[in-house]
Design brief:
By secondary structure, this protein is mostly helical. It has one domain. The protein has 14 helices and 3 strands. It has a 3-stranded antiparallel β-sheet, with helices on one face. It starts with 20 loop residues before the first helix and ends in a 22-residue tail after the last helix. The relative contact order is 0.19.
Amino acid sequence: MRMPRPGEGGDPRSVPARLDGTAYTLMAAVLLMCLYGMVMIFSASSGAALEKYGSSYYFLLRQALWFAAGLAAMAVLARMDYRRVVRLSPLLLALSLAGLAAVLLFGETVYGSRRSLSIGPLVIQPSELTKLSLLLFAVHHYGRRRERPETWKEITVPVLAITAVACLLVILEPDLGSMLIVALSALVILYLAEAPWGKLVTLAGGGLGLTLLFIAVSSYRRERFLAFLDPWSAPRGSGFHVIQSMLALGSGRLTGLGLGMSRQKFFYLPNAHTDFLFSIIGEELGLVGTLTVLALLSLFLYLGLKIARRATDRTGRMLAAGMVCVLGAQAVVNMGAATGVLPITGVTLPFFSYGGSSLVICLCMTGILLSVSRGGGRRAAGRNRRGNREDSHLRGRDGRTPASVAGPGRRARIA
């Protein structure tokens, strides 16, 4: 299924006030992924949890609590009008940027990076909220830009400026993986807002160049990148993680060594329950287990894009497609690192890996997708009909549609 463009969508008069089969299937896939992930988190972390915290269930119980909180947030957001959530985006973005700044000042340092804040028993990672809040802000910004033509600067400068600030704060932690996902979220919305291909390629090329620069100026990141190119050149140094991950995947073969029987998780593969959970799944459950992960994620992405295509307004289409693309890209980056196809960046596997902030944000995105699926609620149909009448006023006397509501295959003319 191809990605929806802003001019596509269903009839606003047919907006469902309740969840349909697509939404229920999406929820089932999400619940299966979360439960599957918790089983594997327990298997991957029980030994380390027993040694460090005196209880094999330490990480499992914490993940279960975050899962319950995420489910509650998902239920609330599914019943809200997603347009209300989008209107709150400036506040959410301000909170996330403040959180990123607080991490630099008061953050807890783990493995040389300050990525989280400890607030009593809670440990939160503001960069996860930034991924969602920046996406919401971009949709909010472009959703208000209904009259064309506008210059490229008028269209993009506010979003790109905020993105640059967020990326700078994240890279100072340093967290290259989260920075890439944050930047990608802005790029996806630019695409959905029908930015010219030339501008998109220029931005992507500039972002790639800056990423390589950040890698080059840091000896740690440079070693990790060289280890990605040739991990066997430093098997006990920077290439250790990649080699152990590939050994875990390879030793699982078709059906795996058995649940709980991983050898690599016992101090060979660091962060087995977070960054490299996919490798442990491959070792314990084999190719069958990893293909199950791929199938569930693919089903989620397919249903998310289906919801985006059926959305009844520009905001819903951009929001649903943007969230699906960001979560899909994060999954690809994580699995690519585990298999040695991409450099290791520390990005978690959505819905599966241990991490409260990541899980809650993923479930919040699911709740917003469900809200888009039901059209924002019972009163959404009336609002959408009014929105369509407003769109009709934007048509010129010659009957042509401006770029903000362009149909399939048409791109914006941005000066």
